[in-house]
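Sequence, please.
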């Protein structure tokens, strides 16, 4: 009889232990909350077994405990997937693209004036490129006189020791020549074409010669008669000038 009463009390004892475990065996209450949830079925959970619950454990507020606005879940959230991102409203930008509302680097936003550009810098002419032509209505700067002589033109004279030589004088400067001399190199040529000697003579320039003009002058160039025996003649081949 006593054994039957003990066997009858065993299920009741297990029920009381399970109820006590729901309120205290799950650990200390967290800020007025107690663990609540499904427990393992009877065959799977026996007294003394430590079987983890299969469903998440939630904490519910106990009567008389201070209110709390937080709810804790024993489950740990996993990585956020594309669906979770869509629900949370977060947007992602593919790599290599510019988010909407931004301006790519190096461009000017619409409606913004571009900064002023610096004025171009004038490049001086290269050496030897020549002097640029003066602007209309301006006076070119004065340059010194410079004579250029043309090759002498010879014509025979009455005496064999003389000849007429014509030379053109061109002043390439802007300042006129006031005075100067022209020197002639006269060669004495023998009957067989041998050049026996060269005689230099000088005569005055046809000054003044204004700048930028050409003046032509014919000279009678002569040497001493004894230098030109019968059968010989003279040839004035070059002319040079000096001026001030």
């Amino acid at each position: 009889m006593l054994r039957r009463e003990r066997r009858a009390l065993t299920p009741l004892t297990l029920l009381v232990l399970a109820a006590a475990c729901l309120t205290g065996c799950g650990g200390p209450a967290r800020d007025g909350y107690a663990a609540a949830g499904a427990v393992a079925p009877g065959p799977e959970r026996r007294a003394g077994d430590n079987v983890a619950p299969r469903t998440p454990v939630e904490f519910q507020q106990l009567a008389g405990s201070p209110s709390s606005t937080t709810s804790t879940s024993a489950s740990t959230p996993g990585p956020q997937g594309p669906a979770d991102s869509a629900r949370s409203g977060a947007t992602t930008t593919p790599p290599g693209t510019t988010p909407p509302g931004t301006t790519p680097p190096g461009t000017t936003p619409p409606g913004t004036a571009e900064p002023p550009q610096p004025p171009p810098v004038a490049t001086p002419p290269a050496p030897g490129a020549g002097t640029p032509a003066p602007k209309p209505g301006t006076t070119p700067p004065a340059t010194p006189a410079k004579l250029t002589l043309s090759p002498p033109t010879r014509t025979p004279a009455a005496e064999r020791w003389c000849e007429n030589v014509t030379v053109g004088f061109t002043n390439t400067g802007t300042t006129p020549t006031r005075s100067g001399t022209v020197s002639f190199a006269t060669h004495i040529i023998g009957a067989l074409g041998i050049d026996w000697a060269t005689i230099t003579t000088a005569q005055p320039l046809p000054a003044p010669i204004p700048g930028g003009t050409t003046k032509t002058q014919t000279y009678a160039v002569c040497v001493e008669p004894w230098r030109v025996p019968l059968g010989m003649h003279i040839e004035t081949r070059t002319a040079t000038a000096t001026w001030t």
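The beta strands are 33-36, 58-61, 147-149, 153-156, 162-171, 180-189, 195-204, 214-222, 233-243.
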